Amino acid sequence: MSETSIADAKIRLTRLIQQAESGEPVHLTRRGKPVVVLVSEADFARIPQAQGHLSFWDQIEEMRADSGFEPVDLTPQEVRSWRDRSDGRDFQWPIPKSPLSRPSTG
Predict the structure, then answer these.
(1) Distances (CA, A) of 21 to 2, 14, 17, 25, 83
(2) What spatial distance separates the first Cα and last Cα of the chain, rounded to whole Å?
(3) How far apart are CA 17 and CA 2, in angstroms?
(4) What is the tally of structural domains in the chain?
(5) How far apart are CA 5 and CA 31, in angstroms?
(6) Could you give the dihedral angle defined by the CA atoms of residues 54, 57, 63 and 64, in that order, rounded to the nearest 10 degrees?
(7) pLDDT value of position 101
(8) Tell me, what's the pLDDT at 62?
(9) pLDDT at 106
(10) Is the entire prediction scored with pTM above 0.70?
(11) Domain span at residue 46?
């Protein structure tokens, strides 16, 4: 893995691209700090983020396939117990005063 400044990369771009194509990533730096990595298309395609977003179900399957995944074993009764079964509170929406009504005089 090589490292070069952005200014130097402008001069040697063709060589750096060939280097990346051969499988060696090239780190480009700005003021000595890495900011970009130049990689081949094949290497980029192997990065999960480059393959696009997984569907919800694909993410679930990926999570379940993980060796550290431990499913939660809950009974339907346990899940139902989480819900508050009370009637709640009484509520009525206030009726707004009509902008067309005039105060009565009398």
Answers:
(1) 13, 11, 6, 8, 57
(2) 92
(3) 12
(4) 1
(5) 8
(6) -150
(7) 62
(8) 87
(9) 54
(10) no
(11) 1-54
Cα 24 to its chain centre, rounded Å, is 28
Amino acid letter, residue 25 = P
Residues 98 and 48: their CA atoms lie apart, in Å, by 58
Query: What is the CATH number for 30?
Result: 3.40.1620.10
Do 62 and 54 meet the contact criterion of CB atoms below 8 Å apart? yes
Six-digit token string for 41 = 């298309």
Q: What is the CA radius of gyration of the chain?
A: 31
* pLDDT for position 96: 84
Q: Compute mean pLDDT per 10 residues along the chain, 106 residues long, and list them.
A: 91 94 94 93 80 80 90 90 87 83 61
Among positive and negative, which fits the CA dihedral 77, 79, 82, 84?
negative
Q: Residue 18's Cα: distance from chain center in Å?
A: 32
